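Q: Got a minute? One more chain.
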Amino acid sequence: MLKSFFHTGFVVKDIDKSAKFYTEVLGMRMGERFERQGAFVEQVLAFPGAHIDRAMLDKGEGHKLELVQYLSPASGTPQVNRNDLGAAHLAFFVEDLDRFYAETSEKGLRFNNPPSSQLNVQGKVSIKACYAQDPDGNWLEFVEVF
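A: Always. Here it is, folded:
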C-alpha cells in the first residue's frame, strides 16, 4: 500500500553539471551523493553491469529530486517533447514568477515562453505558469498562485 511521495528522478548526462544547475540556478540543497553498482542496482534497474552515480537534492519540504547519471550502460540522446507519451515534468511553486523568470533567464535557464497568466471570474490573475528545461532537456514547470 502506498504511503507517500519520496522523490522524482531525472536521468542526466553530467551529474556535476546538473547538480550545479539545480543548486546554483534553482537554489536547491545538495544531499547524498554516491555511486551504485553490483547485484542490487542490476536487479532494480534490470541492466546487467549497471553502474550509476546519483545525487539527491531538495528544498527542505520532504519531496526530493534524484539525479542519476548512468555510467554503464551509457544514456542515449534526449528526444522527449512535452507532449510525448512517457514525458514527465517536475513542478515548483514560485514566489514572484516574473522576477524568478528574469533572474533565472540571466543564469541560463531555458524557458519555452515567458510566464502566462490565467484570469479568474473577477478578471484578476489567479495563476501564472511557465515551462523550462534543465541542461539535459528534463522539463520543469514553475507556478505562482494568487
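A: The mean pLDDT is 92.
Q: Perfect, thanks.
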